[in-house]
Amino acid sequence: MVELRGKALIAVILAVSGLDFLLFGYDQGLFGGILAGQGFQEVLGNPSPTLTGLVTAIYDIGCALGAVAAFVFGEKIGRKRSIIYANVLVIIGATIQTSSFSYGQMVAGRIVGGMGVGFSTVAVPILQTETLPARNRGSMMVVQSGLIIIGVAIASWLCFGCLYAHTSMQWRFPIACQILFSGLCLCICPFIPESPRWLAKHGRNEEARRVVGRLLDKNEDDAEVKGQLNEILDGINQEAEMGEPTWGEVFSNKNKTRNLQRVLLGMGPFMMNQWSGINVLCYYLAYILENYLNFSTEMALILASVAFTQYAIFSWPPFFYMDRIGRRWTVMLSSAGCAVCMFVIAGCLLSTSYARAAAATAFMFLYMDCFTMGILPVSWSYAAETQPLRVRNKAMAVGVFWHWLSNFVVVMVTPIGLNNIGGNFFWIWGIICFLFIPLTYFFGVETSGRTLEQVDRMFYDEPRLCMGLNANHRKVIKYSRADEENRYAAFANLDEKRGSIAEIERRMSTGSAQVQAKV
To answer: pTM for the whole thing?
Structure first.
């Protein structure tokens, strides 16, 4: 087996993560494109709005169950094997769906496939967070969120391309394409490493050293490799003093790691992801355009496909600014834009006219741009960044579980809400998006530029409920590649004593601040 190193290894990690999240996005856009097909409706037995919402949303229950499985088994089997098992489940679920001839069979396939996606959406962000360099980790993780939206766009255009098929190929082929994405992911998985933090936590220090050396493209005895491993081991040793974590410890603030607070903090962006109302549009945009704005089926699918393509294009700008302005400002600015768009959409739908329909459509496009330029990329990086290592897998699984459970509720109630209150449904999402701004300001900590161990120390050294009110917790760290090398070189010759590492951190922070002031 070829042993990749440096940039090539990072690229493969991003490729596996990207394919997993491309599939995630594809599944989000899939049913919105095939629901209107007469043949598909007949196979499902021409379901009511409630049953239509259920067959669409039941996938999210499967995803939530996958997150539960990750909570129970993920830490034992590791990040890499979790991704492999998850994609096997997706292939099984997609096969059941593709061969469906009844509503019940489709529901079963959606649950199994969802379990695979739920499992992978716990493992993939953790693997990336634990292997990508701290100085530009946020920018690199934009790749996965960008590919979510590319998946949505691919699903929409593919469904439009199959619209005129007069056989079950109209919906079976788009569903079957899930197998392709998972198959490609499985082909690449042998080339990715296990997380060095997971290896070190399980006593496999030499393997961890080897992986760190491969990621940095350095010899195993290099000072930077030693320093990074020292920092990881220092964090593990501190957590080991508290003994083996119990199930209940994930939901407790009894020790200095403040697990409950950090679980809730990590859940925040996941909840924002869903309760912003994005999946009202991702799952039902074509349905809304056709049934509430009076566009034809063809025009609704074309507009939805163009919207998702634009959505995909605007998912990439955060690559250039997320590590510069930080996670907090990225979320707050995005939330403000989303709130304004939702209020305008709701206002436009108070009465029906061509001009109002056009304006509502334009602001649906703009809303998706605002969402993908802030809330989306942060939500899939922040939870893993803020959790302590000893309960990271469990804490991440809790966040992902609530993400998918919220997704289920939103997707399930959307046809019912639109049917009962029409355009007023969008006022709800505008108000919720606005509330994200003060929540982020008061409670959010800044993780940009910080290693996972540095994030730990914010909670160890200066704990408080409203972490965002501390200026140190709001500061964006901007290390260059040279700064990072010097930092780890300084750690290389230390014994694993927290006081020594903390002192070096203090001196480096002071020096960095002085350099920036001179500039």
So the answer is: 0.75
